[in-house]
Amino acid sequence: MTVKVLVLSGYGINSETESKYVFDLLGAKAEIVHINDLISGEKKLNDYRIIFFPGGFAYGDDLGSGLAYANKIKNNLWNEVKEFVEKDNLVIAVCNGFQIMANLGLVPAFDSDYGKVNVALQHNETARYIDRWVDIKANKKNKSIWLKDIDELSMPVSHGEGKFYAEPEILDKLEEKGLIAFNYVKGNICNYQNLKANPNGSLKDIAGITDESGRILGMMPHPERGFQFTNRPDWPLLKEKLKRNGKKLPEFNDSMKIFENAVNYFK
Amino acid sequence: MAHRIEVKYKVFDTREKVKEKELKNSGFLIETVELTDCFTLDFNLSEKELQKIAEMISNPVLQEFKINAQLAGKEFDYAIEIGFLPGVTDNLGNTAKEAVQDLLKKKFEEGVYSSQIYFIKGINSKNDAEKIADSLFNPLIQSAKIKSKKEFETGNEMNLIIPKVELKANPETSEVNLNLSEKELIKLGKEGIMDEDESRRGPLALNLTYLNSIKDYFKKEKRNPTDIELESLAQTWSEHCKHTIFRDPIEKVKDGLFKTFIRGATEKIRKEKGSKDFCVSVFSDNSGGIIFDENYLVTDKAETHNSPSALDPFGGAITGIVGVNRDTIGFGIGAKPIINKYGFCFADPKDSTPIYKGENFSQKMLSPKRILEGVISGVKVGGNCSGIPCPQGFMLFDERYKGKPLVFVGTIGLIPRKINGKLSHEKKAMPGDLIVMLGGRVGQDGIHGATFSSEVMDSKSPMAAVQIGDPITQKKFSDAIIKEARDLGLYNSITDNGAGGLSCSVSEMAKESGGCLVQLEKVPLKYPNLEPWKIWISESQERMTLSIPEKNWIKFKKIMDKRGVEATVIGKFTNSGKCIVEFNGEKIMELEMDFLHEGLPKIPLKTKYDKPKNEEPEFKEPELNEALIEMLSRNNIAGNEFISMQFDHEVLAGSVIKPLQGKGRINGDATVTKPLLNSKKAVILTQALNPTYSDIDTYHMSASSIDSAVRNAIASGADLNHLALLDNFCWCSSNEMQRLGELKSAVKACYDYAIIYGTPYISGKDSMFNDFKGFNEKGNPIKISVPPTLLISAIGVINDAEKSISIDAKIAGDLIYVLGKTFNELGASEYYAMIGEKHGKKFIGNNVPKVNAEKNKKMYLSFMKANEKELISSAISVHRGGLLVALSKTAMSGMLGMEVSLEKLKTETKRNDFTLFSESQGRILLTVNPEKQKEFEELMKGNEFSLIGKIREDEKFIVKGINGKEIINSDVNKMLEAYKKTFKEY
Questions:
Q1: Cβ within 8 Å, pair A117-B658
Q2: Which residue, B188, B238, B289, B782, could crosslink B450 as a Cys pair with Cβ 3.0–4.6 Å?
Q3: Domain limits at B378?
């Protein structure tokens, strides 16, 4: 059966097109749905198995990233969202989506207490927006379905408020329970471009976390934006090397793996 | 009663540290900075409601809040609160209000206003506090309150800033008497209509000839014009809207410069291309449109927003970028904005000598550094928040951009060629259609923008011209139009509200139907009692005007309601031949459409062009290792990755060649983007300008800008057969014959070179008065005029993104070639400027680079063939800074050394420094796999090219001179450090 994916949009969300595209490419059926159509009841969360909270600038991030959009969900859709995540469904939230989800308390949601806000994404340590590529390493301790068979991936980040923050005891608990999904590391791209691993000053180099069920993933880097081979900053060099070795260019970047895991989960 | 909620970080707030560092770097001897965000809610709320709101607008992990109480800094000497002036767009306040309404499920009439308090420790006196406040706010848009700790703790007046706009009730329309003396008429044109209190409303920018035509028209009508009629004519006839200098006859060029040379070139090229013509909609719409593939068009438009950016850099720039996005949404029946680009011409940010707009050291202008920072921030917020990638751009510095910076912003759009079976680029408002205004509301921000920018900036330039964009309001309607309403075929025509506001958008669309009838009282306002003439010409942002058949209105309105977008019927399109405006049932404007649009008389222009004879610089060849390092760190050569890394260039997932290339992260000249995720086709974008060459000859300035743009594109993999150009002229003092002579010559070159390359112009814009009249640091009058500047942008379509070429050297042993020939062409070069500065002089010279387009074209076509076979590993266009800069960028981006010898270079130069720094056009530097040498050279036969060396395995950068002796022995790491240090702290 083809799995149905709801890609949320509206009020400044801006990555819905590529977010839908990657799922469709893998055989899922993704649909972009404006939040107001969920609120009005025209569309129902129950009709889908995966929700994608894409990146963007919901409400211009005016009140702090993701806050106003999270409030809109809390004020109007909270019961439906809670019901959705308590079932055997998947949620991925990227960048602004992750900020929204942190404000909603969907991750880490210790002891399945969905709604309790425990972590935050604050201004980058430079207090400046940053757009660059990063390398992230999956936490072996985290058994989330989203991370299956993933070791290290490269993809872009693009945010002004991406510094992962939580109180020390929360950080300890995240580690203890294995809820950290990805850490920034100095991998292929950082070595290629001579960039430091952590782009924003995130505590413990945290790039993404999951809830305890592992079905909900929130992350700052954008797997959907870097999914093609020619999105990689190093593709021209890789191309030259591959060509001289008589090899073909791959079509996709490694970040596609995240979405493959989700689609395979429902196969 | 008004309430106030204050929010402050309880954990480390990065913004505080950064502000602290900024202030310290600016020389203030402060210790610490703390920040509190304040929200003033100007309506009644219960305690319970306030608690709920405060919890909602703060983050429990990071922040704490207080309600109707102060949340002061822990340690401070002074508190400085910055809020907005009445009527200035307050995005934070507006979002807070929307969130509060959603939370409480209530509607409020009054507003929510945001402000920020800086608590600063280490300030000793009120005087110092005032100086610091000066650097924190812009008095044109904000207000500041300063209090010592003691004052703060005892008084509570700081607690409320309520910048509400209150206007006189019952606004009226007045008559304007044109039976004035010539002197008075001139004054009316220059300073505007006089109000009862004898103050003037601001420039109409109508000259005597125009005013006399208007006078004649109303004599026939047997009445005086109303204020709104005169204001409306002033907008429509402004240089900004009608481009009269490009339109009017100019000596033997009877049809004017635009028709003859720009459109003339395009028409000729299209004819010659015949069935291969890729132009679809040129010069007739908000953007130009060309074929992308069999199903899609791409559109392009570049704008400037110079005058507003001089006064409020952030507001000016954000309004610019968000405004040019609307030129995309307003193309045909609505294209989707997919790529932004920018270009900034500034004065040296290190220049801290003040200049003033007013006498006696009044109206101090912002420093070049603040302008730079504000403009970059404005484009960043506007572009990033709109979800449009901005990979492409440049910065260029010259002291003559100190009075007015040039802020270029552009947007590429994508639209299906056919929508509902109809050609998407065609649109027509029909008689009977409703006139619908969509998006933001109207206020008195942006009055006289169009006429203001058609004048020299001086002490009388209006403050009301300043606006701040709101990208999210625009994003909402952009999505609602492009992703929903458009494809349902609900409207017949659409256009953007830009310069001149409704007065221009409605009357432009009324040309399609043949007239209009507007009920101005229906226009939704930001606050009550706005005078009718202001409603009509206000340039309040984020608005579109649409023409909607009555039967579709309810369906359209429903979609907009669902998406939180305000849409209002403000009248009807007619075929009455008249533009009629009513206000509360009273007719306040009735102009013949013909007169409104075609009534402005043509004024024949006269020119002269006395070409300057510059002194030929004489100096000895310097030590070249040093010259190399110095050149790489010059403002005009150095890297600006701080911009590239804060402008989102990855959103929409189409990036192929990014703003920073290779291991070394070097700014390239062109970027490549895939608009469609399921197609390999891509667009190549680049921009080029050589304003210093205008100091020698504007014809060659223009020619080299065109060649540079074409060459940048070719070097990145473009197809010359599918490459279009845009022209943006930013001139100065265009009422002087000499300046017009320079202009004519430059435009003539536009024709000559585009014809040879077969690259049509598809859109363009001009800004003719980039002059500043004011006073210098000694209080003496000065005029600063920008150098005559022509920005040429190129947009090309390629079939396979994987065949685009990056600039970085890739593999050791690769051969280094230079295509084209080097001449002794250092006139107005970056090198002469650099040496001149050492001598405390301005070195210009006379040997301006000249373009041999026929020869270049042949070479570019050969290059394309070589690239089709994927023989080229890296390529870079040689321009500002010459061959040595191009070699350096190739090496630094690849983080690989090289060894080259000028002995084998095809050159006419006799000195090593001239050879390395000449800016001769038509040259491309590239690297080739040695195994492909034969094949490559075979393909390049018949062109001038030189094999000058090869890529090394290590990071040594070695250059041998024309006599074979080593002249440079450097290291890529050291070069990279020089290249990056200039803007490192930005």
A1: no
A2: B238
A3: 256-320+333-414+654-790
